[in-house]
Amino acid sequence: MRHCPTALALAASFLMPTGRALADSPAPKISPQADLRLRYEGNFSQPGAEDFHRGRMRLRLGAKLDLRDWLSASARLRTGNPDDPNNPHVDLTSNFDSFTLAFDTAYLQVTSPVGVEAVAGKFTHVAKSREVLWDADINPTGVAAAYKSKSVGVLASARPSAFFYVINNPSTGKAATALGGQVLGKFSLGDATLELASGALVLQSPESLANESPGNRRSPKLGTDGKPVAGEFVGFESDYRIVDTLVDVGFKLAGVPVVLGGDFFVNLGAADNDWGVQAGVDLGTLKAQGDWQLRYYYSDVRQDAVLSALAQDDYRLATNYTGHEAHAGLVVIPGLNLIGRAYVFKSRAGDNTATADINEGQWQARARIDLEARY
Do the beta carbons of residue 177 and residue 204 sit within 8 Å? Predict the structure, then answer.
């Protein structure tokens, strides 16, 4: 933690204009952001292991600097292992060690009056996506652009977007990249709303992620004796060209906000076990003090439907599983939420050698209780 002042100074130097530019421009507007999560987590019915309980914490500190009405700079620090982008949490069992903070976003954003926006740096995934396909904690590095139209009739807005991310760029060999795009439409249908999105994600030369993608079918590294080296992989048996379609329908039932959601995706680069689906419902909303929310989602994800290095880590499996997820949340006071989460899941049939501790067909469970403060 002793390195945090240096990190914050770097953030300030990145965000603040200097010299003549500062003198000739209006004072920039700075918007600080912070959130803290305290978590209890219990893991149950793990094959060959005892039930496991732990306390966890996540802290994020960020700021947005509006340099002009069309240009802004943003950066954010977070806890967690910098080498594990899926996981911003730290366990509260570290022999009183201090926590490490690292940048998980740092980017410039341009927004035009006609609805075009562009972003470059390290930022959140530009496409609307559920975590079953792209974990919200993974912030890619690259460039992206989007356009948001004005409303026309029942069409509240249309938002086409495109992105290019650099995953790994070695000094020799091919760079690992991700590119794609999406069209998101929002519709007003009387008292109901409809969001419909369809897009594609193409991974090029993703071999560097092979050791971080348990559950997918992978090509093992061979030793000098011609036999596979345990735990080491050099690539994937499938390509990853994923097409994703999402739909959310919102309305009120007896005055309670309701959202019905669905997601279907298929990997056109896999010969089989190439699709996944998620569907669920949200009741209520978490906005004002006393508000509550209930949520349930069902997921069925085949082995090479997603790349597990990019997908959620809420279940102990990122791919090749069937799962049920339930949430219950309450706004205790403005800015402070209490949320309980439960996950029940099992591995699907297929090649589970990469996650040998996950027994096929055995149901497991994970429970979480989160206290979340936000500024």
Answer: yes
Q: What is the pLDDT of residue 122?
A: 98
Give the pLDDT of residue 358: 53
Amino acid, res. 247? V
At position 35, the amino acid (one-letter code) is: D
- Confidence class for position 353, pLDDT limits 50, 70, 90: very low
Q: What is the mean pLDDT of residues 111-127?
A: 96
Q: Residue range 85-92: average pLDDT?
A: 93
| Domain membership of residue 43 as a residue range | 4-374
- CA 340, CA 333: separation in Å to the nearest integer? 16
∠ at Cα 256 (323, 286), nearest 5°? 65
Q: 């209006």: which residue's tokens? A: 26
- pLDDT given for residue 24 in this prediction: 60
**What tokens appear for 151 in the block?**
């409303």
Domain total of the chain:
1
Which residues partner with 74 through β-bridges? 64, 107
CA separation for the pair 346, 52 (Å, rounded): 17
Nearest in space to 151 (alpha carbons), one of 193, 118, 119: 193
Chain length of the chain: 375
CATH number, domain of 88, equals 2.40.160.10
Q: Is the pLDDT of residue 226 over 90?
A: no
Q: Which of 36, 114, 108 is nearest to 65 (CA)?
A: 108
Rounded Cα distance between 352 and 55, Å, is: 29
One-letter amino acid at 29 equals K
Q: Give start and end residues of each alpha helix (H) in the chain.
A: 4-15, 19-23
Least Cα distance to 364 among 38, 137, 48, 54 occurs for 48
Rounded to whole angstroms, how far apart are CA atoms 26 and 28? 6
- Prediction pTM value: 0.88
